[in-house]
Design goal:
- The protein is globular.
- Helices cover about 10% and strands about 40% of the residues.
- It has helices at about 125-130, 145-150; strands at about 10-15, 20-25, 35-40, 45-50, 50-55, 60, 70-75, 80, 85, 90, 105-110, 115-120, 135, 140, 160.
- It starts with 11 loop residues before the first strand and ends with a strand.
- It has a single domain (about 30-160), classed as L,D-transpeptidase catalytic domain-like, CATH 2.40.440.10.
- The chain has about 160 residues and is mainly beta.
- It has a 5-stranded mixed beta sheet with strand order 5-4-3-15-7, covered by helices on one side.
- The protein contains 2 helices and 15 strands.
- The longest helix is centred in the C-terminal third of the chain and has 10 residues, at about 145-150.
């Protein structure tokens, strides 16, 4: 992959399976839009000026790959991501049957192992409907609902996970 010339020191390149991501300094998101996630309740709330716009069911990290509570921000927005399974050495074509669904919004890259955590869609909607702890540490949403959130947020939008 050829990276653009950095305009600042804020460029960071990384790879998640076959999803290549380039993070760059971006304009600040509108302060009034934010995402809040409850690991206990297994819901994601889209908020505007502190008021809930909509509540979405989510699947969260399984016990062996728990999510990390904290305050983050959306680092990138990816439409129709292509996912490659490192364990199965298989690429999944972009689309609703891709394990990360139709939208991918990373919010954290682990400094220890390089793992990327994201809000994304899923090929397994039943897990979201049941609000299960089944992901590898990411926030899984229904594909139709992750598109709604994707269209409302910008790079830099705060995400609070509690």
């Amino acid at each position: 992959m050829r990276l653009p010339k950095p305009l600042s020191n804020a460029f960071l390149a990384m790879s998640v399976g076959c999803i290549a991501l380039v993070f760059s300094a971006a304009p600040e998101a509108k302060a009034e839009i934010e995402i809040e996630v409850s690991l206990k309740e297994r819901y994601l709330w889209l908020k505007d000026s502190g008021n809930v716009v909509k509540r979405y069911p989510i699947a969260v990290g399984a016990p062996e790959s728990p999510m990390i509570p904290g305050v983050y921000s959306i680092l990138k927005k990816v439409k129709d991501p292509t996912y490659c399974s490192k364990s199965h050495h298989k690429a999944f074509p972009a689309g609703p049957n891709d394990p990360v669904g139709v939208r991918f919004m990373p919010y954290l890259k682990s400094a220890t192992d390089g793992k990327v955590y994201a809000v994304h869609g899923t090929a397994w909607p039943r897990w979201v409907h049941l609000r299960t702890a089944a992901s590898l540490g990411c926030i899984r949403m229904l594909n139709s609902e992750v598109i709604e959130v994707f269209n409302q947020v910008e790079v830099g939008t705060p995400i609070v996970i509690r």
